[in-house]
Amino acid sequence: MNKIVVLLALGSLTVAAQDAPKFEVDTSWPKPLPVGWINGQVGGNCVDSHDHSVIVDRRNITEEEKETSMATPSIIMFDKIGNMVRAWGDPEVVPGSIHGCTFDTEDNVYVAGNNDGIVQKYSHEGELLLQIGERGKFDTTDGSRQGEALNAAHDRLNRPSGIAVDPGNGDIYISDGYGNRRIVVFDKDGSFLRQWGRQATQQEIEEGAPGVFAQVVHCIAMSNEGLIYVCDRQGDRVQVFDKMGVFIRNIWIRTGTAALPDPRGTAWTVAFSPDEEQQHLYVMNGRNEQVHVLNHKSGEILSTLGRPGHQAGNFTHGHTVAVDSEGSLYVAETATGRRVQKFRPVN
């Protein structure tokens, strides 16, 4: 009887392993940049409906690099095979320390900045269409980056990290999460609608209390079900809400420190597999320099991709992950990584 139980258990593990997609790095993607261009920190990436990939670049190259090269524009778009389609972004106009991006159903691209108080919307061709907030003005007591966070403004942000756009009505959901600790929602024209979230207490962090955040609210995404997925980075979890901010569940990524908050954190970015049911959830675990493949429904980690390092397929400050229509993963690396890598699904 015991042998039968063991065999059944092993069988279930085998099925789980087989259900997890496998990937290999595509070293041919992207193609070389124009002569003289060099990447700074890549603060985020996203993929549109045509499998165009955008990366956002902080342009912070070294003095040595400036002698021989030039910083790339802030926003760079590649096609499916890795050719650069276009690049744009005045460094005096785009968000400071550009961070995160997303597309809407019309393939407009939205960008945030974790050293600024704005989110911007650009057309697919690079025309600025909408800005929420004022560049260099923060939702703080004195409007400066150093001021005490208010977590309340209807017309300002405080170091936002990411954006999700409702495909039904164009509402803009922002993880306003380096200075503030909130999710704030604007309509398609940039008018304030609602918000939720605040700084968690130590006890709330340890208990995984709903709707509060450990330190940095690092990402936001919307599922096909219309649920809002939010990275509570140092809380080592993804919190799931409905569109009104009602808490649904926690998805724990407990591969970090034994105690919370985890100083570096494990829940950096989430993305969904391209099937209608979104069977798999991908989580960029920046602490461990890995991408976890989760069963979306159960939250179980099925497999893991990557390791720390500088070689192809390794990550150095893996930061954000995006998925195209064929299920390929694109991972952007910031800090000293300064690149984006593509991983193709394999049988």
Number of helices: 3
Strand content: 35-45%
Give, in spatial order, the strands making up the sheet with the most strands: 1-28-27-26
Unreliable runs: 1-15
Helix content: under 10%
Main beta sheet? 4 strands, antiparallel
Number of strands: 28
Sum up the overall morphology in one term. globular
Structural class: mainly beta
Indicate the mean pLDDT. Answer: 95
N- and C-termini, Cα separation: 35 Å
Radius of gyration equals: 20 Å
What does this structure look like?
This protein is mainly β. Helices cover 9% and strands 39% of the residues. It contains three helices and 28 strands. It has helices at residues 2-19, 63-68, 202-207; strands at 22-26, 37-38, 42-47, 53-57, 70-71, 75-78, 84-88, 98-103, 109-113, 119-122, 128-132, 162-165, 172-176, 182-186, 192-196, 198-199, 212-213, 217-222, 228-232, 237-241, 247-252, 269-272, 280-285, 290-295, 301-305, 318-323, 329-333, 339-346. The strands form eight sheets. Strands 1-28-27-26 form a four-stranded antiparallel beta sheet, with no helix packed on it. Strand 19 and strand 20 (237-241) form a beta hairpin. It is globular and about 50 Å long. The two termini are 35 Å apart.
